[in-house]
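USER:
Class, as today's exercise, take the chain set out below, and explain how the chain folds.
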Amino acid sequence: MRKILFFLMLVSIQVYSQGLILSSPEERSEFPKLPADKLGFAESLPSSYSLEKYVPTVLDQDGGTCVGFATFYYALSTMYNIEFDITDPKEKYVHSFDPYFIYSIHFNDENDCDRGLPFYAAFEKLGKIGAKKLFYPPFTNCETSWTTTKLANSLEYTTPYSINNWYYYETENMSNSSIINVVKQNLYNNKPIITGFKFVESMYSYTTENTLGVKSDGLWDPSTYEDEKGGHALCVVGFNDYKFGGAFRIVNSWGRDYGDNGYMWVKYSDFTAFVEEIFFLELNENIQELPPTIIETNNYKRYNYKNNSNTYSFYEGQYLNGGVNGYGIWSDKEDNSYYVGRFDDAEMSGYFLLVDDDGVFSANAVDGKLQDFEKLGFASDNSLMELQLEAKKYFSRLGEKLSIRKANSSRKSNIRAKR
């Protein structure tokens, strides 16, 4: 019966999932409020500003996971990309954060991604356990089961990305112009903004049945007579005073076919009418703004090193026993490639993911060299097979095809030799 009802909804209008559980006024009264010194007032603002070049590629959410996308995948990823000046599409994708991580833990005993979350549940876990990089295992889904040991092992590479604080911007007694200015000022200070909107059907894509829906120009033009149907989490990444008479640029999690390549424009007046919650994140002190910016902890680091061509590449990941040991991301600027997996004494070891100009691939590394899974008898290694199938399912949900990289002996990792 549930499948039949869902099918009937699909034929009437183009349906996407939402999933934000809006907080009650009583709950909001207890939220940490945005301090006056963090309002980000500037003497003057440009007529337009955008963080879009730092935003990871638009994805299509599965289930009611919009809070994970708006908070972990879009906002947090964009903040780190700004810190490290990451604008290359491949590099942004590799360094983005898993939107499903929070759901797999929160609903560990229920296996239910259809149920939504309130923002504070995501923020509290982000402060305690951090965020998992998209390409780090385990490759989560609604059926992911967490044991105490499995979670403890993952915390070694998720807690370095925990946040110091999150703040709620209380709009109840603020004028519309003040709300607009605070959002614009913080965007101009390179802070993406997490928002919760009252959801109405005009937020869906335009169809012959939904003539108020968002068209290819990205404009959301809601009507006041529409019935509210829950909440939807979105991330604001820009503004333009001349676009549609003044509008915010907002990234959605309904795929690249939605609106303007996955983005929507919300006029300032509609923003103040439909936004219910506005939040800001504060990154932790692990980031040190040296030239270049690095991550520095006892067991997790980001640093740059010179390649043979005298260009700079980066390693970001676990740094155990005084060296490159554990899960990490190695960027090779010579090959314009990114390698994600476990390193032993600065060499690739075991299951790896590779992102280059041809796509996303998986392979096994032996003695620092990527091999072909089939050549190595992939199916006979149960641990590798399980991880491979887990990854394939995971990236399929993200809309990506995961392929097996053929053996290439030239792809060898030895980071120490290049430092």
